[in-house]
Structure formats: C-alpha cells, structure tokens
Amino acid sequence: MSAPPSTHHAPIEPLRWLNLALLAAWLWKGWAFPEVDRIYRAHPLVFDFFPSSLRAIATLEVAYLGPICVALGFAVRRTRRAGRVAALAWLGGSLALLLHLGSYNDATFTTSFWVALWMSWYAFRRPRTDGDWALVPPFVARCLISLVFLGGLVGKLTPEYWSGEAFLDIYDRPYGVFGLARAYVTPAALPALAQFYSIGAIAMEGTAAASFLLPSRWAGLVTIAVMLSIVVLSNLLLGSVMAPLIGLAATATWLSRQAQPSGGPDVQGQPKGKGVPHGSI
Amino acid sequence: MAPPTILPAVRVARHLRRHRDLGAVAMLAGCALVAGFLAAVPIHPAAARLSMSRFHLRTEPFALWAALQPVPAMYNFANRYWVSARPLAARDLSAPPGEVETRMLNHYPPRIFTFGFERLRHVSAGERWVYLESAYRDLRVRSAYHLRPGPPDAAGVVATRVEPIPWPAP
Predict the structure, then answer these.
(1) C-beta atoms surrounding A203 within 10 Å
(2) If both were cysteines, with which of A105, A279, B73, B146 could A12 make a disulfide (CB 3.0 to 4.6 Å apart)?
(3) Nearest by Cα to B107 from A204, A240, A107, A149
(4) Nearest to A137 by CA among B142, B28, B114, B169
(5) In what order do the strands lie in the sheet with B160-165?
(6) B128: closest CA among B110, B151, B145, B108?
(7) B69: closest CA of chain A, how far (Å)
(8) Which of B7, B12, B162 lies at the smallest CB-CB distance from A215?
C-alpha cells in the first residue's frame, strides 16, 4: 500500500458537467414548482408519520432552491472549492427532499442523491496514482448506475408487470408510446402491446443493471441508450429522473477515455492516454 | 494478436489491492450492501414486505424508513389506490362503485394525496377515505387513511389531518 503523493490531480470537468446535469434536472421540475409550492402552502397535511421539520414547506423550499443557487455559483466560479460546496449542496438537498412529505416519492431526488454522492466523493477524493481517476471513479459511477436499474428491475418481477397490466393502467394518460397507442391502436390490441412494452422494459433494466461488468465504452453506450429510450418511450417528465444518471454515465465514459487511446491506465495506475485535461482538482 | 481485454471490475480490484483507497472501498461496499438488499426482494418475503411498507409510509421507526429512502425503487410493485367520499367496505374495493376513483400507481401509493396537483384534487374536495394496496407476487401490504380537512384559518389555509384507519374487514 502506498500513500498518495500530493501531486496527483483529477480533472474538475466531471463536477462541472454533473452540476449542469443536476441543474437541468431540477429546473426541468421547476416549471411546476411555483404552483406546487402554492398548493402546499394553502393545503398543508398534518401527517404524524413525518417529523414537523419534514412537513414544513420552508424545509422543502430551502432544500430545492438552495442547491440551485449554489450550483449557479459553481457554474460561474469554477474552482475546486466551489465544486465541493456544490456537490455537498446537491447531496444535502436531495436527501432532504427524499425525506420530505411533499417530495419523498419523486424519483428525481433518488437519482440526484446517488449522483451527488458520487460528486461529493470525487470532489474530496485524493487520487492514489497519477492515472487512477480514469479507472476507479468511472467504475464506481457505473456501479451506482447499475444499482439504480437493479432497484427498478426487482420490483417489476411480479405478474402485473409481466402481463403489462401495470403499465397499461399507469399510463392511462397521453404519454409516450401509450399515448400514441391509445390514439392509433384498437383497444383490443392494447394489452398485447403493453405486455411487449413491459417485458422490453424489464429486459432493458436487466441489461443496464448488469452493465457495470461491461468494458467501459459498452457500459456507457448501453446505459445512455436505455435511459434515453425510457424518456422518449415512456414519459418526457422522466427526463428529470434520468438527466443526472445520463450525466454520470457520460462523465464516466469521458473519464475512462482520457486514458483509453493506448489501452487505459494500467494496474500501476500510470496514465497512458491524454493525461490530465484542463482544470484539475 | 491483440491482448485480451481486462474488464474494469478486474482492473479496479487489482488497483484497490495495491493502493489504499478507503473512500472507494466504502462506496463499493455501500453499493454491494444496497444491491444485496435489492437482490433479497424477489427471494425473501421480509425484504419485499419492508420495501412495500416503505412505500406505504408505515416503516417504523422513522429512522429506518429514512435509511431506506435512497434505495432505488422506481416503478416497483403493483400499487393500487381507491379514493372515496365515504368509508368503503371490502366488497367496494373488489367491485368499486362508479363514484370510487381507482387506478394503479408507479410507486409510493400515498402520493395520490400527498404530492403536487393530486394533493390539491383530493384534499380540497372535503373529507376523503383512501385505500392503498401494494402487491408483489403473493404478498400484499395494505393501508387506509382518512383525510379530514380542518376549518380555514384567517389566511384561508386549510390543514388536512391524515389519520390511519383499519382496512375494511371482509
């Protein structure tokens, strides 16, 4: 085991890109925020399951708007310190919103939490060798992405999803494939279409869940393709859920490629590729 | 002949054996722990029940529910809700009368009265009785809530009390 020399630096670009991906995801939700905020203020719930601080609308407002303000600061001031503060703000905001009565069910904050966790770890991590930022952080990122898809997969291994009944009922609205199908397909054909779609979704999630085992290039391609197809085929509102993960998959692929031209960093961790790009942390 | 491709997992394992990186090990161990829990859901009823109870906001203590919240569970289980302006009997749930609103939901069935525009629709209409069921193969988790709006305060704010009630007896 060797102690990390102080001269090793990892690029700062991943923090900037993930900051933008999270910002895009949260602003995507922002179209509804003023109206939802008004509803929550006018119709509070007294639900004893949640502590009062996690029912308070002010907590939700700070947890949602705080990270956005900090992220805008990092978008302007691109320093290592600002990146660390932004990562922690995203992490804290996501966690608070995952626990709040008004937002606990929103998967945007689940994906944001895992991406912000990776950001925070990456921002404070000291690379052990000159090249290990092109090896270890991308692999951890892919494991987190696989974990999210594993979570989606296991809960669908039940007859209502195998038959397509669940998706058919959930998407009884003009979204994605089901919106088109209801407009152009006879009602009698809908259950078979829903079953095909549902089994396809299970297969895609299974593939994405196992993608961390693939070579870097393929893992990135597979997961980004799966995530984009979910947004396009299911529901454009899922863009806020997928944007942080798409950002993380793209970042992992980019980090790996920095050392790829001659085969990636070797097990000694020495970079063989393009080396440290631009800014570094 | 090109050398065989070494998978990232193998290269990372070799790297972590040579270089002390507790942060990376902790991140991967955390992933493995959550993945282990998720893998238990299809094979261990207790894990499936815990996951569904979390969806129903019934996991006690609250700290356990909070610890489970980051575990990814998008579009999990067959979740159904029934909303009515009167208390429902078991037969109303199996054959809902026309005035009962019922549908499946992607996840967290209580979202039908806690989240966004759906909250407005259900709590601004007076008293409501809400019945929620999550199913996973042969397992069921069921909850029922009475939504009781209070009088408006001076600013016109109407606080609605959410009270758990028993599931209707068959």
Answers:
(1) 12
(2) A279
(3) A107
(4) B28
(5) A45-46, B160-165, B139-149, B128-136, B78-84, B101-105
(6) B145
(7) 6
(8) B7
Task: Indicate whether A6 pLDDT > 80.
Answer: no
Quote the tokens at residue A9: 């630096």
Provide the shortest C-alpha distance from residue B97 to chain A (in Å).
Answer: 18
Where do the DSSP E strands lie in chain A? 45-46
CB A52 within 8 A of CB A156: no
DSSP letter string, B126-137: S-EEEEEEEEET
Name the 3-class secondary structure at B74: coil
Residue B38 in tokens? 């998720």
CB contact under 8 Å between A44 and B62, yes or no, is no
- Assess whether pLDDT exceeds 60 at residue A239: yes
Cβ pair B119:A110 closer than 8 A? no
Residue A225 near residue A242, CB atoms below 8 Å: no
If you average pLDDT over every residue of chain A, what do you get? Answer: 89
Nearest CA in chain B to A156: B76
CA dist., res. A96 & res. A104, Å (int): 9
pLDDT of residue B5: 75
SS3 B62: helix
Return the number of other C-beta atoms located less than 10 Å from residue A98's C-beta: 21
Give B141's contacts (C-beta < 8 A, 6+ positions apart). Answer: B49, B52, B53, B55, B56, B58, B133, B134
Task: Determine contact: A161 vs chain B, CB below 8 A.
Answer: yes
Residues 6 or more apart whose CB falls under 8 angstroms from that of A17 comprise A247, A250, A251, A254
Q: Which distant-in-sequence residues (6+ apart) come within 8 Å of B165 by Cβ?
A: B87, B129, B144, B145, B146
First to last CA, chain A: 23
- Cβ-contact A221, A199 below 8 angstroms: no
The Cα-based distances of A126 to A5, A122, B23, B49, B80 in angstroms read 9, 8, 9, 41, 48
Does the beta carbon of A198 lie under 8 angstroms from any beta carbon of chain B? no
Going by C-beta distance under 8 Å and a sequence separation of 6 or more, which residues neighbour residue A264?
A134, A135, A216, A256, A272, A273, B11
